[in-house]
Design brief:
The protein is α+β, with helices and mostly antiparallel strands and 493 residues long. It contains 17 helices and eleven strands.
């Protein structure tokens, strides 16, 4: 027999044995499509629309199934019941952060642990600190709501400068949430024309676009591509390095003017904690972790909110009857002159429903960042080994057709009862759920309500095309759902 053929057969046998051992050697993993040697199930997955692939797999294998990305198994949870059982009922066991190759490479390269991608005690301490600091921000001075209202007024003024001419709202809508994060982290907001501010925004926008691309889904399955092949993943690492250096300069400025009795922002609070723990050899409060945590807050708090705003306005253009009803409620509750405040939300059930429906419909993050089980866990008669990656399909909950009739339709009625009052839903998991839910959820909710209300209070939205011809299909559906580009006119009310 040809030696080459023998070699190929031997290698194939070893790979098949390795896959068998992974599947059956230590645990009894859930069922799933048979993986191919080396590449696993990557050919079974549409990397341009992973959510659709997961939905099809769930029909064949049930709400809990296994996929192989490369040679490593990943357990997928699909549907409300399975996700709640794992993330809420067994929250601790499913609270690990799974492997995300490109970020793992960045963390290794820069010697850091970040808030979103850390595990164990590091994650617990950084998360607890970040939550406490965001909740208590202001230390008796200005509240976060004050800052959101100020930024909403600045946003409205920037939109006025368009002079009712056709414009792409992407940049302006990105400035508002980014500036809010800047005010929390750095104390000061920036003018929308500040070049440093624009540069930072561009880095985050570019990274999100790359992370949502089919190429990055392939890189996540085959990390060797990140280490040894050229590609857009290298741009991500360069952008992370740029942001790190920018934040480092800000940290140095804060260190020179720090008053431990008068913290001004998130960086000051972190520096004070570093000083308090300077003799603790095991402390998680280091300069590198500060840079990584600030980077996470930037990335999570900027692009997600700005993309939701951009997608939201597109949906309001598509459905002018919804927009008209919202503006009628705004006129009735707030009027045209007073600035909206968070307290108004209780008297504005339709606006509240519209904001929730925008988030539900756009399905911004179809699949969460990978979780991991923190120990060997028996789950629904399966045995999942410690460290196994877990993928959570948020799409399967937000588009559940029993909880939300006609889930592919944009309908604020999904969040209203028969009397027109706002109706909460346990299936609203736009910010995920459990131990790893979004740290900035309350801030994002506040921003979306106040920014959208302020825009609709002051402007009539005019589409450049007939609403029935507006296409709301996302142009990318990887890490996030990205809306198509569009233009509109902001007509002063």
């Amino acid at each position: 027999m040809d030696p080459v053929v023998v070699l190929v057969l031997c290698l194939s046998s070893l790979l098949l044995f390795s896959l068998w051992k992974q599947r059956y050697g230590k645990g009894k993993l859930p069922p799933g499509p048979t993986p191919l040697p080396i590449i696993g199930n990557i050919l079974h997955v549409d990397v341009k629309d992973i959510s659709s692939s997961l939905r099809n797999f769930s029909k064949a294998y049930g709400p809990v199934f296994t996929l192989y990305f490369g040679m490593k198994p990943t357990v997928v949870l699909h549907g409300y019941e399975a996700i709640k059982e794992a993330l809420v009922d067994l929250g601790d066991e499913f609270s690990g952060r799974g492997h995300f190759p490109i970020i793992a490479r960045a963390n290794k390269e820069f010697g850091r642990c970040s808030l979103v991608f850390s595990n164990g005690q590091t994650w617990k301490e950084l998360r607890r600190f970040s939550l406490m600091t965001l909740r208590n921000f202001g230390m008796g001075k200005r509240s976060i709501e004050d800052r959101v209202q100020e930024e909403a007024r600045c946003l409205v003024e920037e939109l006025r400068k368009t002079n009712a001419s056709p414009c792409d709202p992407t940049f302006i809508l990105g400035c508002a949430p980014c500036n809010l994060i800047c005010s929390i982290i750095f104390q000061n907001r920036f003018d929308y024309t500040d070049q440093s501010f624009i540069n930072i925004m561009e880095k985050f926008t570019e990274n999100l676009s790359i992370l949502s691309s089919p190429w990055m889904q392939v890189c996540n399955a085959f990390p060797i591509l990140i280490d040894y092949f050229p590609g857009s993943h290298n741009k991500i690492l360069n952008n992370i390095a740029y942001t790190k250096n920018y934040v480092l300069e800000k940290v140095k400025e804060h260190q020179e003017t720090l008053d431990i009795n008068n913290p001004r922002d998130f960086i000051d609070c972190f520096l004070i904690r570093m000083e308090q723990e300077k003799h603790n050899q095991q402390t998680q409060f280091t300069t590198e972790n500060l840079l990584a945590t600030v980077g996470d807050l930037f990335a999570a708090g900027t692009e997600t909110t700005s993309t939701t705003l951009r997608y939201g306005l597109l949906l309001l253009l598509k459905h002018p009857e919804v927009t008209a009803k919202v503006q009628e409620e705004i006129d009735h509750v707030i009027g045209r002159h007073r600035s909206p405040c968070l307290q108004d939300k209780g008297s504005m059930p339709y606006m509240d429903a519209v904001v929730h429906e925008i988030q539900r419909y756009i399905d911004l993050i179809p699949i969460t960042m990978p979780h991991a089980v923190t120990c060997d866990i028996k789950f629904r008669n399966y045995l999942i080994p410690e460290g196994t990656n877990i993928l959570i399909s948020l799409s399967s909950v937000l588009h559940d057709n029993k909880e939300f009739p006609n889930p592919e339709m944009f309908d604020p009625g999904h969040f209203l009862d028969e009397s027109g009052n706002f109706k909460k839903s346990d299936y609203f998991m736009a910010f995920s759920t459990g131990r790893r839910n979004c740290v900035g959820e309350s801030l994002a909710r506040m921003e979306l309500f106040l920014f959208l209300t302020a825009i609709l209070q002051k402007f009539t939205l005019k589409s450049l095309v007939d609403p029935k011809h507006i296409d709301t299909t996302p142009v990318a559906n990887g890490l996030t759902s990205v809306p198509p580009s569009y233009q509109l006119c902001f007509i002063p009310a």
